[in-house]
Amino acid sequence: MNASMPAWSAIAKGDELPPLELRLTRADLVRYAGASGDFNPIHWSDRTAAAVGLPGVIAHGMLTMALAGRLVTRWVGDPAAVRSYAVRFTRPVVVPDDDAGALLELSGKVGDVREAEPDSCRVATIDITARFAGKTVLGRAAAEVVLPE
């Protein structure tokens, strides 16, 4: 364990994960569309986004979810430690057509730690908050992770 990693045996309810800020640009949306196959024009066309009543081009919900998951995997150090992960999409992340993009602010808190049977491992529930422009964009976002020994 390096100096930046937590003492896993001391992790307790209420502990906060280091926050993470990520910027999403239109180029990120193009790359995600290519990787995912989701070429819905609300994710790249201002005209289409406006026609369907959106405030602008929006990030793919699954991209937003994946980025919020990065908060947890960065903290625990191993993506395979994630047992479950779920969110509700509550608001879109509007990505402007500029170099700055949209700022996604991510934070997390340990909601629970328990011993899991039959594995005899410690499992933590992480409550995740994802904000864009001061508003929560994911609701009931939580991941369950196996804590390292």
UniProtKB/TrEMBL annotation:
* Cellular component GO terms, alphabetical: fatty acid synthase complex
Xref: Pfam families = MaoC_dehydratas
GO MF terms listed in the record are: fatty acid synthase activity
Which GO annotations describe the biological process of this protein? fatty acid biosynthetic process
Q: Provide the species name.
A: Pseudonocardia asaccharolytica DSM 44247 = NBRC 16224
Provide the MaoC-like domain boundaries: 21-108
Q: What is this protein called?
A: MaoC family dehydratase
Known InterPro entries for this protein?
A: Fatty_acid_synthase, HotDog_dom_sf, MaoC-like_dom
State the similarity comment.
Belongs to the enoyl-CoA hydratase/isomerase family.
